[in-house]
Amino acid sequence: MVGGKRWCFGNQSSGDDVADFDPILLVSGIGGTILNSKLKSCFGLTTRIWVRILLADMEFRKRAWSLYNPDTGYTEALDDSSDIVVPQDDYGLYAIDILDPSLLIKCLQVTDVYYFHDMIDMLIKYGYKKGTTLFGYGYDFRQSNRTDQAMDGLEEKLETAYKASGGRKVNLISHSMGGLLVSCFISLHSDVFSKYVNKWISIATPFQGAPGYINDSLLTGLQFVEGLESYFFVSRWSMHQLLVECPSIYEMLPNPEFQWKKQPEIVVWRNRSENGQDSARLETYDPSGCVGLFEEALKDNEIEYNKKTIPLPFNLSIYKWAATTRKMLNSVQLPEGIDFYNIYGTSLDTPFDVCYGSETDPINDPSEICHSLPEYSYVDGDATVPAESAMADGFPAIERVGIPCAHRTLLRDENVFEYIRKWLGIEEQRSTRVKTSKVVDVDLA
């Protein structure tokens, strides 16, 4: 055997013995779930509002823009004629596979909107069967990670996978914010987690937040799709107006209690006048002090919706809710008997500190920040989540692995797949189910 790899060819056993595998449940992150707008009348007609390329910005503003309700803890769509729902087709896998499953996107292979697609294909290739040993959990990622809706939905999926596989415990694979949702579930339902879960593989989870990415998202928004496709997608400004009212974004702010190697900061060059003289001064805000800046910068933020002006300032109610979520995340403990594995991205410049204005062109009023382009200082990570944050899970991990890869690309990286197969024992189980085979030695060095 050369290079330590063995490839098997020949007749595979039938799908009747798929129960040899423990079931897998894939849990998506923020932006990783198809969202539909379903009319409350007209026979419940639905429109996909996330993700779509054609008419994306128009439909997004009309149906996705939302306001947080502090009485319920939920973000509620401004469009009161419809509800936002997650499609449940294909045992939950459809919603987290290709986020714009239109024929055009599939033909053009716009991989920016391919989410768990490659991983689903890989698992099916190795013998997993949808609805028996393979399931997906997508959710309304606008909401807090600890709402009853999110927690009940995850419990239902775990129970479904457990029963469908004949009472075998579930192996969870989460991506990005999905890891925070799982952590909230452990905190609130540790007994249920212990009952249904065998192993948990976390991929690119911002356990301590994503400082540069999230701080800037609250101030200027974000662009989910880059390059030429971005001109056909939701604009950065439209996305910004949604995120200001999204508890999930606030829950990924940098953890002020975490012992960072260097505290993440927002830096602003401000124009100050003294004795009739203007001068640029550098102001620095740490994770706790950022709240005042957010309030100043967003004090005049507003949108026009149905010919009405709706103010969207920094939402202190959401911030307080998110602070409680952070306390939960800081104290959560993995139940005994659960194997935990952590994969995180490395070797890419990842935003950490954010700077607005410059010494030669300072910010005159904080509201100008929302219409400016940031300058970043970078640390090692996956271009979204710093490796320092993703590594700091706080759990007794069986293994932690850093892989040079971007945040979403980790979900289709062959090195990631190799670790998943190793940790779940997929290749070993598959080899015992091969009836006749030829073993070929391959040098992959």
What features would you highlight for this structure?
six-stranded parallel β-sheet; 3 domains; 445 residues; alpha/beta; disordered C terminus; Rossmann fold
Structural overview:
- One of its GO terms (molecular function) is O-acyltransferase activity.
- InterPro entries: AB_hydrolase_fold, LACT/PDAT_acylTrfase.
- It comes from Lactuca saligna (Willowleaf lettuce).
- This is Phospholipase A(1).
- The protein is α/β, with parallel strands linked by helices and 445 residues long.
- It is built from 14 helices and 19 strands.
- It has three domains: 1-34 and 86-203 and 413-445, Rossmann fold, CATH 3.40.50; 39-80, no CATH class; 210-331 and 349-379, no CATH class.
- The longest helix has 17 residues, at 148-164.
- The model is unreliable at 1-18 and 434-445 (pLDDT under 50).
